[in-house]
Amino acid sequence: MNLDTSSLALVVAGMAAVTYVSRYPILFLAGRFGLPRSVMDALSFVPPAVLIAVILPSVLLRDGGLQLDWRNEYLAAALVTAFISWRSQRLFLAILCGMLALWLWRGLLLIV
Amino acid sequence: MRATLPLMAGVIPFGIIFGAMSVAGGIPAGIAGAMSAFVFAGSAQLIAAGLLSSGAGIVVVITTTFFVNLRHNLYAATLAPHVGNLPQRWLLALAFWLTDETYLVVIRRYAQHDRSPYKHWFHLGSALTMYGSWQVSTWLGIWAGGSIPNPAGWGLDFALPATFIGMLVPLIRGRSMLVCVTVAGALSLALNTLPNQFGMVIAVCAGALAGSLTQRLDITAPNRQRETAAS
Q: Residue B151's pLDDT is what?
């Protein structure tokens, strides 16, 4: 965090503006004109792309470098979360197991 | 209201996570509360909280919010035929409260074939319920985050990636989605050294583009095979 409160207020105002712009104009316009099919198709890929682009760096990058081994407890917990989510399709069960896995793994690393 | 309840249970923990994450990242409580009140966009707020606490600048946060919220256009486009005839003030209000969850509940109601003239009241009720839950849970999170010392030590910093993994896994269906996620994921790691996390914005654009191109190829390829078989 390197912003003061007035800059943060500016961030909130800007976010509110671009968010409203993402909601209202199309609601108003698309009712009359409709959207090109290709644009609709590309937009449907934005959510998964955003999710993975947040997940991977926060799980794999430790201390500024790629950490791809068993000593990375975030990687272990992420794999558990993904597996539970895949098998159960239940969001909160997956998050809960992921958090538990993180704590367990940390405990194990302290012992080893 | 009853149709919105299961999704409320889904949203409240996110609000708490957002509030707690903001406080953990050094964002003042008033700013986090204002964000929930005026922006009201769950994923965008979570990402913004993450970006701000990792030192991103004003432009990056607002640009990212814009990209994260692009999907609202998709919802708006799908809802437009159902609400297009409502008075302007209704559209202005419903647009402000349009979220993933409200969209999911409401589009099902509009799709039912009865000719009830009050479906937009159902829409408004659902939206306001979500808005209320979001405000309350944000402040719960702010309060909880402030009273727990060193939230990262408790693994609270894993709550966001864990939540996103749980949201992402069910989305990955088919080759085009896999291509999208692979491209976006690889670029997000490769471009991580770019200043102010601009790498993420590029990764998302490239991933979405790659995904939709693959989808187009997959749709046209079987047609071509059929044409060759016919000739």
A: 56
